[in-house]
Amino acid sequence: MELRKGRILSNTLTYIALIIATLFVLLPILWVIRTSFATELIAYELPPKLVFMPTFKNYIELFSRLHFGLFLRNSLVIAISCTAISIPIAALGGYAFSRYRTGGTALKFGVLATQMLPGIVLILPIFVIFNALHLTNTMFGIIIAEMSFNLPFLVWLLMGFFDGIPRDIEDAAAVDGATPFTTFFRIILPLTSPGVMSATIMSFIFCWNEFLFALILTGNETKTITVNLSAMVTHKGTLIGVLSAGTIIGILPMVILSIFVKKYMIEGLTFGAVKG
Asked: How far apart are the first and last CA of the chain?
């Protein structure tokens, strides 16, 4: 009986701790959702009002007056294009490092070393180079810039997954007459699909949330969501209602993405943790 009471008490305390931790994460998001449906008067009212008549005015203004649809499209095009180009290159690079030791240890750590410099240090020379090549204020330019920072991380991420695949599988495929390319595309990639999916998700999130390069290298027609949201904090004050509405729309693709790829994310994070 005492053991049962102790287990019940332990489970109760665990659930309480989990609920409190969840509230710490969800309350800011719920408050932003609340503010996105409030007028400016209600949004700034003290003490804050929790029950009021919701309005879609902020969302309507966001798309009608502030042309948020254009920036939403830009972010989607940049994130999808950058991911679609980066993943095949990162997969081939990670496989080359894992299996063929291309360039030796020096090149492997040289790729990783590119991640050690913060973007703020490199943005000025990158801007000068891109401006000379007429790549500023272009979608192509920002895609290249974001790829240059995403690729090293993706290569290292996928290299870890390839290291978890036994070499015996490739040796057996070679005995059966498979070429290295056939082995890679028909055997290795399917086996590491959770890792590839994880890398795809990470690449999309990085590109979607990128701010510094988008701020410096884009113009009025190529701005992304992150740049547009920052512009809502003006010297006259913060457009809190419209900013909240834009924030909700900005995180919506991440929520939708997590619903569809949750299975692959879990498989990717636990890949190789249990060996048969």
From this structure: 39
pLDDT in tens, 227-244: 988 888 776 677 888 999
Write the CA distances from 209 to 76, 213, 252, integer angstroms.
11, 11, 12
| Residue given tokens 């993405």 in the structure block | 257
Q: What is the DSSP letter of 232?
A: T
Take residue 268 and report the two structure tokens written for it.
Answer: 């990717």
Q: How confident is the model at residue 48 (pLDDT cuts 50, 70, 90)?
A: confident
* Cα-trace Rg, the chain: 24
Whether a cis peptide bond, with omega within 30° of 0, leads into 47 is: yes
- 6, with CB counted inside 10 A (0-12, 13-18, 19+), is exposed
Strand partners, 234: 237
In this predicted model, what pLDDT tens digit does every residue of 32-43 receive, in sequence order?
A: 999 999 888 888
C-alpha atoms less than 13 angstroms from C-alpha of 10 in its C-beta half-sphere: 6
| pLDDT tens for each residue of 4-32 | 777 888 888 889 999 999 888 888 888 89
Question: Which DSSP symbol is given to 238?
Answer: E
Where do the domains of the chain lie? 56-270
Q: Do residues 86 and 147 lie in contact, with contact meaning Cβ atoms separated by under 8 Å? A: yes
Contact 126, 213 (CB under 8 A): yes
Q: What CATH class has 56-270?
A: mainly alpha
> Phi, psi (5° rounding) for residue 53?
-80, 115
Count Cα atoms within 13 angstroms, Cβ side, for 51. Answer: 0
